[in-house]
Amino acid sequence: MSIVQAEPLAEQIAAKFTKLGGHVIFFPRGTKRCTEVGWEQSATNNLDTAILRARKNAYNNVGLVGKQNGLWALDIDDAAIQ
Fold it and tell me: In whole numbers, what is the pLDDT of the chain averaged over residues?
C-alpha cells in the first residue's frame, strides 16, 4: 500500500475564491478549525494578500468567511446529498 501525498493547492484555491470576491482564511490540512486569533477580521478577499498567506503553507486548507460583500458557500461532505 502506498501513501499518496495530497497536492499543495492552497494558492490555487485562494486565488479562485478571491477572484470571485470571497474572503479566505487558512488552517492546517485535515482540520476545519482556524486557530488564528481574529480570523473573522483577517479573512481577505485581496488576491495579493491571499496568495502571500497561501505561500506560507501551500498544503493548508482554505476556508471561506461569509461577509456581506463576499461569497456565501455551503460545504456538503455527504456525496448522497444532491
Answer: 88
